[in-house]
Design goal:
By secondary structure, the protein is α/β, with parallel strands linked by helices. The chain contains 14 helices and 13 strands. Helix 1 (about 5-20) packs antiparallel against helix 6 and helix 10 crosses helix 11 (about 245-260).
C-alpha cells in the first residue's frame, strides 16, 4: 500500500459490493471504474455494474458468468473467490471507496506533474502558454467536492429563497421559503407519541400528491407496509379493506393512488451498514443521481450510527447531523428529520434529544404540541422564528390538518 495505490481498499470495495446487493447498487453508481489501479479490479467492477444496470442478482456465479472470456484477465476463479471473501461485512464499503478515490486523485496529480515537467523544458513553448496549460491540467483533476464557488456563477431564481410546500399552509406562510427550505435540514420534534411521524407522513403524502418524489427513511419505527397503511388511512380513513361495501371504493381508490406515487422506503434496521448515516447518505445520493428526489424524510434520526469513532454520544450525534446536512446541501433538496423531545430537569420541557447537535445544523426547527393544537417555530433561518401556527388532529384519518 502507498499514497497512490491501495489494492487492499480496492479489494474491500469489490468485496462489499459482492456481499450486499444494496451496496452493489449504490456503489456502482458512486464509484468510477477509473478509480481502480489494478486492471483486474476494473474488470470485476464493470461486470458488477453491468449486472446492476439490468437489475440482475450480484454474486460469485453471476459475476463469473458476466466476465466470460475476461475471467482470466480478472485474476481467474480463485482470485474472484478471494475478493468475495475479503471483507467480513459490507458495512464499510463507502469508507473504502473514499480511500480508493483519494489514491486515484493522487495518481492524477503525479501524472500531470510529470507531463508539466516535460513541457517546462520545451524551449519552443512560451511561458505564457506553459502557465495556461498548467492551469488547465490542474483544473482537470477530479476532486471529491470543490468547496470554492465563484458567486458570479451562481444563478438566483425568481421568488427569493426556494422551498418545497409542506402541505401545511400555516407553516408555508410563516417562512420566506414558502415551505421546507431546500438544501437544509428541517427538524420536526415532539414528545413520544406526540404525532411527529403523522405530521411527516402527511406532509410527504401532500408532496407526492403534487407529483413529487419522496425517499422515506426509518431506523426504528414503521416498516414499509406500516407506512403505506398509514398513508392510505390518511387518504380515505381506512388502513385495511373495510367490511362495509359503501366504503370499499374509497379504499381501493386510495390504494390505487398510493401505488402510483413515487415513494422509496429505506429501512435502516435492515441495512447491511447497521443503520449508519454514511450508508444511508451514500444510497440517497446514488438514487438521487438517477432520478432526483423532491424531499427526504428521515424518522428517528437519533438511533442512527456513524462509522467514525466518537468519544461521546453528543459527538456521534454531531457527526450524524453534519453528514445529513451535507447530504441535503449536495442534493439541493430539503431533509425533514423527526426527533423526540425528552423531559428536562424538574419536568421542564427541553430541546430535542441530542437537540444541540441536530438543531445547530438545521435551517428550520418545529415543535409539535397536540394538546394546544399549535406548532411552534423556535428557530428558522428564513424568518418566522418565535411564531406559531394552528394545527388540528383528525382522529378518523390520523393526520394533522392545517386550516
Amino acid at each position: 500500500m502507498s499514497a497512490t495505490v491501495n489494492l487492499e481498499a480496492e479489494m474491500a470495495v469489490l468485496g462489499s459490493i459482492l456481499m450486499s446487493r444494496v451496496h452493489a447498487r449504490r456503489l456502482t453508481v458512486t464509484v468510477d471504474p477509473a478509480w481502480f489501479y489494478r486492471d483486474a479490479h476494473r474488470l470485476i467492477f464493470s461486470a458488477v455494474k453491468a449486472l446492476c444496470e439490468v437489475d440482475d442478482p450480484v454474486d460469485f456465479l453471476t459475476v463469473k458468468t458476466k466476465l466470460g472470456p475476461n475471467l482470466e484477465n480478472a485474476g481467474g476463479e480463485d482470485y474472484l473467490i478471494q475478493v468475495c471473501e475479503f471483507v467480513p461485512s459490507a458495512a464499510n464499503g463507502d469508507y473504502y471507496s473514499e480511500l480508493v478515490k483519494e489514491c486515484f486523485i493522487r495518481r492524477q496529480i503525479l501524472d500531470r506533474i510529470k507531463k508539466l515537467a516535460g513541457r517546462a523544458i520545451d524551449q519552443e513553448l512560451s511561458t505564457e502558454a506553459l502557465v495556461s496549460e498548467a492551469r488547465e491540467l490542474i483544473s482537470g483533476i477530479e476532486s471529491p467536492r470543490n468547496p470554492i464557488i465563484n458567486v458570479a456563477d451562481v444563478k438566483i431564481g425568481e421568488g427569493g429563497d426556494l422551498g418545497i410546500p409542506s402541505g401545511y399552509p400555516g407553516l408555508d406562510r410563516s417562512i420566506s421559503t414558502g415551505g421546507y427550505p431546500t438544501g437544509q435540514i428541517t427538524v420536526v420534534s415532539a414528545y413520544h407519541k406526540g404525532g411527529k411521524t403523522a405530521f411527516m407522513s402527511g406532509s410527504a403524502l401532500s408532496i407526492l400528491e403534487e407529483g413529487g418524489r419522496i425517499l422515506w427513511a426509518t431506523f426504528d419505527d414503521l416498516s414499509a407496509e406500516q407506512l403505506k397503511r398509514r398513508m392510505v388511512r390518511q387518504m380515505c380513513g381506512w388502513s385495511k379493506r373495510p367490511t362495509v361495501a359503501s366504503y370499499v371504493s374509497d379504499y381501493e381508490m386510495a390504494m390505487h393512488l398510493i401505488d402510483g406515487y413515487d415513494l422509496d422506503f429505506y429501512d435502516g434496521a435492515l441495512d447491511d451498514g447497521g443503520g449508519t448515516v454514511e450508508a444511508f447518505a451514500g444510497y440517497a445520493e446514488a438514487q438521487h443521481s438517477r432520478t432526483p428526489y423532491t424531499a427526504i424524510f428521515c424518522d428517528y434520526w437519533q438511533v442512527m450510527t456513524t462509522m467514525r469513532k466518537c468519544n461521546s454520544d453528543e459527538r456521534e450525534l454531531g457527526e450524524i447531523s453534519r453528514i445529513l446536512a451535507r447530504m441535503s446541501r449536495r442534493l439541493s433538496i430539503p431533509a425533514i428529520v423527526g426527533a423526540q423531545i425528552t423531559e428536562g430537569r424538574a419536568g421542564e420541557k427541553t430541546r430535542t434529544k441530542g437537540g444541540r447537535s441536530i438543531e445547530e445544523k438545521a435551517g428550520l426547527v418545529l415543535r409539535l404540541d397536540r394538546e394546544t393544537e399549535q406548532v411552534e417555530i423556535p428557530y428558522s433561518r428564513f424568518g418566522g422564528s418565535g411564531t406559531n401556527f394552528p394545527i388540528q388532529w383528525d382522529k378518523y384519518k390520523e393526520r394533522h390538518i392545517s386550516e
